[in-house]
Every structure is written in structure tokens, then in C-alpha cells.
Amino acid sequence: MNEIITTQKLCKTFSNGGVQQHVLRNIDLSIYEGDFTVIMGASGAGKSTLLYALSGMDKPSLGEVTFAGKNITKGTPDELAVFRRKNCGFVFQQTYLVDSMSVLDNVLAAALLVEKNKKKAAAKAKEVLKAVDIEENLWNKFPTQLSGGEAQRVGIARALINEPKLVFADEPTGALNSTTGKDVLDVLTKANENGQSIVMVTHDITSARRGNRILYVKDGEIAGECQLGKYVSGDKERHLKLRDFLGGMGW
Q1: How many CB atoms lie within 10 A of CB 85?
Q2: pTM here?
Q3: Residue 15 maps to a domain
């Protein structure tokens, strides 16, 4: 299995009122191509900090992150921005769509960062919107006219448009009800089945079941790991295995 990301002695420290707070502690980790990796842990454990360090959105205090063969801890902000544009897609709890732009233009704008031919970019944007089940009658609507689930699926389309090596998702269903959350998870699962690598932070066991690999972060360290294999809907053994693992982690 090919590694996309490796970390060596990854540390992140913040200063809070003169007191050093160690959020990540000497993490050695590999993220593999084709995996749906889920990061779990209690609030404040360092889940999102780890995700941002892996993607180059945040610099570690110590240690190294190698992403697609490049040591991204040594890059300048401009270099990292270009690197992320080509290699990363991001899905957050909030969609951060531009309210003054249509659904299609939100996705097209992301495509044009890489594909300079507008006709090709527009065709690709339409293709990926269809792939995440956004129907054509919604393409000219504005984000404020969408449901929460629709907006999040547009956000996923934007994350997938440039065929990134890895999609990072930070609590993508955190602001959604169970029905629309399931729709969003179905889209991410389908993308993974089509070969897309995903790293997702979540506190929700239903969302976590979609992953084949679960990492549990505790006090800034990887406290445990659970391999679930390929996701199959309705697999009760999968749920029990994950529940037992999380129980053992003190979740």
C-alpha cells in the first residue's frame, strides 16, 4: 500500500498565557493511498490540529510532514498554497461557499485555479456536480437557496473538482441532521470507492463507520488504531467492533 503522507515526531505547541500547551506530541504516522481514514478523540484531543498539520494548513512546532514526496513543513505560505491547490481538497462543517456566486460558479472558480481553459473547467464542474447528486435545476441557484445537505454536497464537489490526492474533511456532518448527514456520507463513501483517499475528523460513531481505518487521538498522541475493512451498509459486526474499540479508548 502506497503512503501519501508520513509524519516524523510531529509536535504542535501553543502558548496560552505564558503556559505551553502541547496539542500534538511526537506523532509518527502514515496515511495510505485509497484509504478512508477517520480521526476520532475527545474534544480538545488534537484531532483538527492533526488534520491541519497533515494538509499543510498549519505548521508544526517540531517534526516533519512529507506529503506526496514533498516535505511540506519547509514550504513558504505561497508555496504551500500552490501545493494544496494541486493536491488537497477540503470539506468543513461550514461550507464556506460564496453567497454571491451560483452553485456552478462556486465549483467553477475552484476548477479555474488549476484548469485555465474555462470551457473545459465548466464541463468538469458540471460533471462533478452530477456525481454528487446536485441536479441541473440547482446549478444557477445561490448557496442561501440550498438545504444544508445540498450545500455540503456542493462543497464536496468543490473539494473533488481538481482530482486531489487527498480530501480532508473536518466534521462534515456536524451541522446536519441524520438524513442529510447520511447523504453527505454516501457521497464521500462513493468518492472513496472510486479511488479517492480521504482523511475525516469526526466525533460521531455513525460517520466513523464509513472509514476503513480509525485513529484515536488522546492527549495529542495516537492512542490506538482500528481496522474495519471496506464499508458495507448494515454491517452490525462493524458497528460492534468500532464501539468496542472506542470503549477501550475511553470514548
Answers
A1: 14
A2: 0.94
A3: no
